[in-house]
Design brief:
single chain; mainly alpha; membrane; transmembrane; transmembrane helix; Intracellular septation protein A
Length: 177
C-alpha cells in the first residue's frame, strides 16, 4: 500500500506540473494544478523535508493565483506588483521539489548532478524575469532577456516534469527492494 501511495503522490506532483504548464492562462486550472502539486508533495514528505516545504510554497502560489483571479483585483499597479511577487513562491516550489529529489537520489547514492543543473536552469529563468521587471534595461536588452527567460522557464518546466517522473521511477524501484 505504501508503494501505491508513493506512486500516486509523484503522479499528482507530475500531473500538477504538467497541468500548470499546459493551462498557463486559465487561473482556475492553475489553482487545481498547484493543489495537485501541494497534495502530492505533502504525501511524500517522509522522503525528504523539502517536499513539505514545496507543499507550502505550492499553497502560497495557489493563494497568489486566487488573489490574481480575473474578478479580484482590477488592472492597476498593485496587480502588476503582485504578479511579480507571485513568481517567488513559484520559483521556490520548483526549487524545493528539486531539492527533495536531490535528497532522495543522494540517499540511494545516485548522481545528483541532473538536479543541480535543473535547479540552475529553473532558477535562472525566474530570476531573469524578476531582475528585468524594474525596467532599467533598454529595449533590445529587455527583449533579449525576456526571450532567454521564457526559454529557460519552458525548458525548466518540462525538465522538472521529466525529473519528477524519473524520481517516481527510482522511488518505485527502491521501495520494491
Amino acid at each position: 500500500m505504501k508503494l501505491l501511495k508513493g506512486y500516486y503522490a509523484y503522479l499528482a506532483v507530475s500531473g500538477g506540473l504538467l497541468l500548470s504548464l499546459a493551462a498557463q492562462h486559465n487561473w482556475a486550472l492553475q489553482i487545481l494544478a498547484f493543489a495537485l502539486v501541494s497534495a502530492g508533495a505533502l504525501s511524500v514528505q517522509n522522503a525528504s523535508r523539502w517536499y513539505m516545504r514545496a507543499s507550502i510554497a505550492a499553497d502560497v502560489t495557489m493563494a497568489f493565483k486566487l488573489i490574481l483571479g480575473p474578478a479580484v483585483i482590477p488592472p492597476c499597479l498593485l496587480r502588476i506588483v503582485l504578479q511579480y511577487a507571485a513568481l517567488v513562491p513559484l520559483l521556490l516550489t520548483g526549487c524545493m521539489l528539486l531539492m527533495g529529489v536531490k535528497d532522495q537520489m543522494h540517499k540511494i547514492e545516485h548522481s545528483t548532478l541532473p538536479e543541480w543543473v535543473l535547479l540552475v536552469v529553473w532558477s535562472a529563468g525566474y530570476i531573469l524575469v524578476l531582475v528585468s521587471a524594474p525596467g532599467w534595461l533598454n529595449d533590445y536588452l529587455f527583449n533579449t532577456v525576456w526571450t532567454l527567460a521564457n526559454s529557460l522557464i519552458s525548458i525548466g518546466g518540462v525538465a522538472l516534469i521529466v525529473e519528477m517522473f524519473r524520481a517516481q521511477r527510482i522511488y518505485l524501484q527502491t521501495e520494491e527492494q
